[in-house]
UniProtKB/TrEMBL annotation:
<comment type="similarity">
    <text>Belongs to the NAD(P)-dependent epimerase/dehydratase family.</text>
</comment>
<dbReference type="Pfam" id="PF01370">
    <property type="entry name" value="Epimerase"/>
</dbReference>
<dbReference type="InterPro" id="IPR036291">
    <property type="entry name" value="NAD(P)-bd_dom_sf"/>
</dbReference>
<protein>
    <recommendedName>
        <fullName>NAD-dependent epimerase/dehydratase domain-containing protein</fullName>
    </recommendedName>
</protein>
<feature type="domain" description="NAD-dependent epimerase/dehydratase">
    <location>
        <begin position="4"/>
        <end position="237"/>
    </location>
</feature>
<dbReference type="InterPro" id="IPR001509">
    <property type="entry name" value="Epimerase_deHydtase"/>
</dbReference>
Length: 314
């Protein structure tokens, strides 16, 4: 099997690349480096099984050429910032939905029959069932969630038309090595800028689940190896949830920082944010997977990683 990974130089994508390379597979990374980093993939540069295409998924010609001879696409490139959609109504549509259709068209052009897609808990919006199961309806409250839900539907349709195998993963927030965006990053950056006062966007009570990256990668490969449906939809998450205040508390303890806390918001941190994110992972657990790291351990590993390289905050 030969694999192509859109977004393969990003936080999650580069870990998928590592796992595939470890398994001796041929891997093409397709990335425009808008948020991805050469640093995350450069250790594979001299391996003959590895190829890098610096390109945009919006470039249909280059994408079509790059998928020649590919058997399996991990489509992980996206505009992975949930917040910006309220101000900018175009970006999620282009970077999450149009790019997905480009990938699907390139697969069709090249006869590729397998796709894995990185979706999100944001498709459920403010779900009223917790933990939220996969059959809960799409009720996104952000354009990020809305376009991911639409992209899932496009994948479903193409897979049904052409009899492809599809794996759709709905992720909670990932944490761990190579983490470059999210609440831990934001809070640590704020503390660097002002060690005396830590501003939190909400009132500290929102409850979020997270998943340590190595557990997440193991979950993805478990699903690909064991899920038997033609179109496989799986939540990836943790049994635990922490409040924003608890997350901040772990960071402050680890950094031995004692700022005053200032709460800027209410029940959510920004327009479109969700107060309670906790996914039901029983479908995945039945395949024999469960997370090995607690969320607290994952947060500590993320802090260690971010502390190692101060350039990451620039
Ligand atoms: N990190 C999370 O907690 C999380 C949670 C839910 C879903 N996801 C999804 O998982 C995927 C990976 O997220 P991540 O956290 O690794 O983000 P990331 O920003 O680190 O990775 C995205 C990668 O895609 C590349 N990219 C973006 N637009 C592109 C384009 N048009 N053409 C080519 N390359 C492009 C970027 O350069 C980057 O390398 C995304 O689809 C994201 O929406 C992530």
């Amino acid at each position: 099997m030969k694999y192509l990974i859109t977004g393969g130089a990003g936080f999650i994508g580069s870990h998928i690349v590592d796992e595939l390379m470890k398994r001796g597979k041929q891997v093409v990374v397709y990335d425009n480096f808008s948020t991805g980093k050469k640093l995350f993939i450069q250790h594979h540069r001299d391996n003959p099984n590895f190829k890098l295409v610096k390109g945009d998924v919006l470039d249909q010609n280059l994408l079509n050429k790059s998928l020649a001879g590919i058997d399996f696409v991990f489509h992980f490139a996206a505009h992975a910032d949930v917040r910006s959609g309220f101000e900018n109504h175009e970006i999620d549509h282009i970077q999450n939905l149009e790019v997905t259709q480009n990938v699907l068209e390139a697969m069709l052009e090249n006869g590729v029959k397998n796709i894995a897609f990185s979706s999100t808990s944001s498709v459920y919006g403010d779900a009223t069932v917790h933990p939220t199961p996969e059959d809960y309806p799409f009720q996104p409250t952000s354009l990020y969630g809305a376009t991911k839900a639409a992209a899932e539907n496009y994948i479903y349709t193409y897979a049904s038309y052409y009899n492809w195998k599809a794996y759709i993963f709905r992720f909670v927030s990932w944490i761990g090595e190579r983490y470059t965006h999210g609440i831990i990053f934001d809070l640590m950056k704020k503390l660097k800028e002002n060690p005396k006062q830590l501003e939190l966007l909400s009132d500290g009570t929102p409850k979020k689940s997270s998943l340590y990256v190595k557990d997440g990668v193991e979950a993805i490969f478990t699903i690909i190896e064991k899920a038997e449906e033609q179109i496989n939809i799986y939540n990836l998450g943790h049994t635990e949830v922490l409040t924003v205040d608890q997350i901040a508390g772990i960071i402050l303890d680890e950094l031995e920082a004692h700022p005053t806390k200032k709460y800027l918001g209410g029940k959510v941190g920004w327009k479109g944010d969700n107060f309670f994110v906790h996914l039901d992972t029983r479908r995945l657990n039945k395949l024999g997977w469960k997370p090995k790291s607690t969320i607290e351990e994952g947060i500590k590993k993320t802090i260690d990683y971010l502390m190692e390289d101060p350039n990451l905050f620039k």
